[in-house]
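Milestone M4 deliverable, item 7.
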Amino acid sequence: MTPDEVATYLQDHPEFFEQYADVLADIYIPHPHGGRAIPISERQILTLRERGRQLETKLREVIQFGQENDAIGEKVHRLTLALLTAADVAALVNVVKFNLREDFAVPHVALCAWFDDRGHVPELGAVSRETREYVGALGTVYCGGHVPAGTTSDLFGETEPQLKSFSVIPLRSHETFGVLALASEDAQRFYSDMGTMYLKRIGDMVAAALVRHLPAQ
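Output delivered:
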């Protein structure tokens, strides 16, 4: 019989372990970490302990992820409430920048929208046609360090040379009408394979809030 056949037989005939309990008690196998041989019952206990440790590790990870998600969810909730109470575009811009800096520790925030009537809100000033095209072509939120230089200088001005990582969030209603851009001097702050679910939700909320205050395109 092959080892696989033996294993299959034992799985199909659990009564074997009752009928030959004395045989099992006399079987010794190598210790998993080397050294002396141990009874099969002790080997089972070691296996169960190892599985228990693995489950504990996974449980700690799940708890940690849950706590992190709860914390992020609370921050997003605070931002949502602040957006709802913003009286005008200027207040909305202040809300977005303040919350992202204070709650999410994002050092550089740019919020732009390309509407004709925007002179009273300098933060929503003009961006180049190239930047509009770049943002409009994004299928979803971009995170990483490879944003066109013209776009980063458009959005972040004189601070652009010190910035190493970016998140570019298109603002869309029926079509793309603006951008929320985040940046950091830390090259690992926004990286290509990071999760973007919350960033996209923030972008959706900011876009919906802006549409309430800005004129139709």
